[in-house]
């Protein structure tokens, strides 16, 4: 059993939190062992006129919701993990129908993420969408990001589908959460929409050039990220969950179809810290960041919740955990630094692209920090974004999400896209003239320059995202992001 140094953990927490002291948004770190609080460190304010943050301040938990839903699903004993989704949702299109329940929960189903699909259709983050309409639309999407069981790549799609399947069998997630909250005497609760009243919820803060704005999401929330509560609520929930056999099941990583090991289970990932594999998860929503780590061997829980969009809650909690366990700073992974020539890279075919930056890589517009590995390799620390890369012979080689890759520097071949005209997808409309893509209408119309990647691939920016356009034929093109790689447009 690892010896715990709670004084060192508290000092490590303040190394981060002290930068948030004063009249700015902040966060809280809470440590608990066998139900007894051992560490409470907080800094910053809840919002204008709302006072300082503490262990009982209510935040959105974002994707930390996932392991709670996985727990409820297993408790219902309704679906076997090996069961294809079509057995619960017979109206699903052919492609998602064969994805299993386990694959959907373990990020192996290749299911497209609804939020990123909406972005590719020009629907903004603040536009409201409803649960039934979202489900009917998702059920008809007959494509996947990847062959099920071949990669671990993050998506909220499986959780939304399974929440519908559970409700049809009489197991409503919000009601199950409410029953657990009442049993434990905690304030954990779900929300249908961002605007639903939540007692004590603090606003999330997004940094702007001239201060802060309040975070907002229009899309209907789901079992992928609908929970809120305090740090004390989350610690008590985890303290109750860890001794139960069901925790071992959701925390156990699910291997790929090939049998290759992964670090991601059912809403729980394993963080590698000083030779330890520590169960936990992170979460991010507009204005909020969250993270937790835990050890069922001695009932230890660490939670970090923040109400600021620029916080790195998972990095904070890993830093505190290392101090708690006496992991020497010199034994922790070293940030990558200048690990490869910066710039854009692209696969020989298809829409896989990346941008190398000092200390990180952006893949399909999703950034991941990298660290020095062995023998000149650079690796990620996120089980749901597994990466092992190096630059050799003019190319990035290695693996992304457990799949082999070779990416070459993008090139401007001076080609004209030859895509002039009007394009439509499921009612969404865009227009291309030369190297400029026009999207939206009226005051929301934007003209986005198209950056060439070579071989019929182009990048453009819209709704704050860099989107890849892949020309499939004279009359078909595909738009893609990290979690949604198959939205096709037809030329009118």
Automatic annotation (TrEMBL):
Keywords: Hydrolase
GO MF entries: hydrolase activity
EC number, as in UniProt: 3.-.-.-
Domain Beta-lactamase-related: 21-313
Pfam families cross-referenced by the UniProt entry: Beta-lactamase
Keyword field contains Cell division: no
SUPFAM superfamilies: beta-lactamase/transpeptidase-like
Annotated Gene3D superfamilies: DD-peptidase/beta-lactamase superfamily
InterPro entries from the UniProt entry: Beta-lactam-related, Beta-lactam/transpept-like, Diverse_Enzym_Activities
Name this polypeptide is given: Serine hydrolase domain-containing protein
Organism: Nitratireductor kimnyeongensis
């Amino acid at each position: 059993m690892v010896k715990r140094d709670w004084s060192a953990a508290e000092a490590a927490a303040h190394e981060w939190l002290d930068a948030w002291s004063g009249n700015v948004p902040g966060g809280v770190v809470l440590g608990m062992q066998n139900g007894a609080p051992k560490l409470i460190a907080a800094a910053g304010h809840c919002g204008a006129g709302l006072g300082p943050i503490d262990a009982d301040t209510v935040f959105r938990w974002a994707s930390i919701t996932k392991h709670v839903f996985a727990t409820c699903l297993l408790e219902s004993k309704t679906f076997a993990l090996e069961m294809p989704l079509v057995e619960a949702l017979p109206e699903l299109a052919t492609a998602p129908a064969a994805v299993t329940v386990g694959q959907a929960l373990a990020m192996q189903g290749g299911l497209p993420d609804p939020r990123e699909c909406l972005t590719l259709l020009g629907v903004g983050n603040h536009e409201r969408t409803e649960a039934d309409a979202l489900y009917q639309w998702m059920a008809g999407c007959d494509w996947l990001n990847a062959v099920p069981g071949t990669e671990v790549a993050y998506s909220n799609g499986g959780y939304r589908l399974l929440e519908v399947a559970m409700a049809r069998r009489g197991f409503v997630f919000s009601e199950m959460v409410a029953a657990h909250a009442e049993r434990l005497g905690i304030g954990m609760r779900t929300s249908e929409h961002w605007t639903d009243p939540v007692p004590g919820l603090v606003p999330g803060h997004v940094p702007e050039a001239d201060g802060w704005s309040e975070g907002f999401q229009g899309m209907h929330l789901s079992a992928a990220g609908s929970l809120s509560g305090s740090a004390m609520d989350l610690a008590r929930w985890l303290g109750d969950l860890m001794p139960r056999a069901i925790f071992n099941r959701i925390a156990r990583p699910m291997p790929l179809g090939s049998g290759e090991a992964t670090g991601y289970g059912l809403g729980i990932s394993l963080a590698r810290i000083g030779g330890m594999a520590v169960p936990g998860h992170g979460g991010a929503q507009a204005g909020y960041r969250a993270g937790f780590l835990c050890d069922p061997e001695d009932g230890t829980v660490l939670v970090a919740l923040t109400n600021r969009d620029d916080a790195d809650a998972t990095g904070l909690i890993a830093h505190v955990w290392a101090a708690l366990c006496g992991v020497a700073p010199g034994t922790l992974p070293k940030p990558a630094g200048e690990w490869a020539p910066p710039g854009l890279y692209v696969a020989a075919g298809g829409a896989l692209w990346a941008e190398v930056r000092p200390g990180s890589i952006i893949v399909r517009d999703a950034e991941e920090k990298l660290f020095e590995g062995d023998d000149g390799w650079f690796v990620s620390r996120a089980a749901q974004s597994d990466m092992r890369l190096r630059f050799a012979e003019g190319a990035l080689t290695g693996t992304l999400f457990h799949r082999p890759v070779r990416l070459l520097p993008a090139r401007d071949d001076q080609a004209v896209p030859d895509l002039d005209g009007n394009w439509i997808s499921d009612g969404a409309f865009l227009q291309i003239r030369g190297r400029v893509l026009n999207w939206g209408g009226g005051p929301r119309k934007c003209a986005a320059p198209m950056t060439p990647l070579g071989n019929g691939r182009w990048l453009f920016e819209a709704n704050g995202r860099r989107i890849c356009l892949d020309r499939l034929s004279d009359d078909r093109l595909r738009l893609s992001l990290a979690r949604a790689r198959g939205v096709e447009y037809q030329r009118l």
